[in-house]
């Protein structure tokens, strides 16, 4: 199927942070005055399970609460860790994921294109401006500001409604199995999964299977 509509995820699909994740992690704990009790990998794993945050600070607070509970740390100052993390993260410190610029250009030549991201408008717009693609999409859904976040079908359905596009002619491209593949399939879209180096594998018996799985965004050009 050649899609008439292509919706993209942003973080780790189109772009990557250029900040040193381990250095940022260590500095956040130092700034918050909390003894480190987890790794950046454990933080990333917990982040995929948070679906009820309206701000970046609230999101990271939930993340650290969950990591702390799993580590059986007892009471921790999750809000201080969240505040330090948000202060240290620079949303403009991003670069293209290799092959992503070409994939987006190809999609724009053959389909109407939108963006569906779980981040807040201010944070994600800063990334789009840094990449020079704030005007590259015919619709943008910042789920943290407008709908329930992925993997809820709501942000996908919102984007399709704004494009007046049917789900069965649409493709969603993302790197996160839980948020992107499950969310897209729940909304009735074709799902293209392009995991990045830090992404978790799907469960051994996944509920939803991606229609495409690529090693690089470059391979998306084979769909058209």
From TrEMBL:
What Gene Ontology terms describe what this protein does at the molecular function level? hydrolase activity
Task: Answer whether the UniProt record assigns the keyword ATP-binding to this protein.
Answer: no
Q: What is the lineage of its organism?
A: Archaea, Methanobacteriati, Methanobacteriota, Stenosarchaea group, Halobacteria
Q: Needs which cofactor?
A: Mg(2+)
Gene Ontology BP terms: small molecule metabolic process
Q: What protein family does this chain belong to? A: Belongs to the HAD-like hydrolase superfamily.
Query: In its UniProt entry, what is this protein called?
Result: HAD superfamily hydrolase
The record's Pfam families line, in alphabetical order, gives: Hydrolase
Looking up InterPro entries in the UniProt record yields: HAD-like_hydrolase, HAD-like_sf, HAD-SF_hydro_IA, HAD_sf
């Amino acid at each position: 199927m050649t899609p008439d509509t292509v919706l993209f995820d942003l973080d780790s699909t189109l772009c990557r942070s250029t900040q040193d994740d381990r250095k940022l992690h260590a500095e956040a704990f130092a700034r918050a005055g909390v003894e480190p009790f987890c790794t950046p990998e454990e933080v990333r794993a917990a982040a995929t399970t948070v679906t009820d945050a309206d701000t970046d600070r609230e999101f990271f607070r939930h993340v650290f609460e969950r990591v702390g509970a799993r580590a059986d740390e007892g009471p921790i100052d999750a809000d201080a860790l969240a505040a330090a993390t948000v202060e240290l993260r620079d949303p403009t410190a991003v670069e293209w994921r290799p092959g992503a610029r070409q994939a987006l250009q190809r999609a724009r030549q053959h389909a109407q294109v939108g963006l569906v991201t779980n981040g807040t408008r201010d944070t994600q717009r800063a990334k789009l401006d840094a990449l020079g693609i704030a005007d590259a999409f015919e619709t943008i859904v910042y789920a943290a500001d407008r709908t329930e976040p992925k993997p809820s079908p709501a942000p996908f359905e919102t984007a399709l409604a704004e494009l007046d596009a049917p789900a069965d002619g649409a493709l969603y491209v993302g790197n996160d199995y839980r948020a992107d593949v499950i969310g897209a399939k729940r909304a009735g879209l074709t799902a293209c999964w392009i995991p990045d180096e830090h992404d978790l594998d799907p469960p051994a018996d996944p509920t939803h299977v991606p229609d495409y799985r690529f090693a690089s965004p470059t391979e998306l050009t084979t769909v058209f």
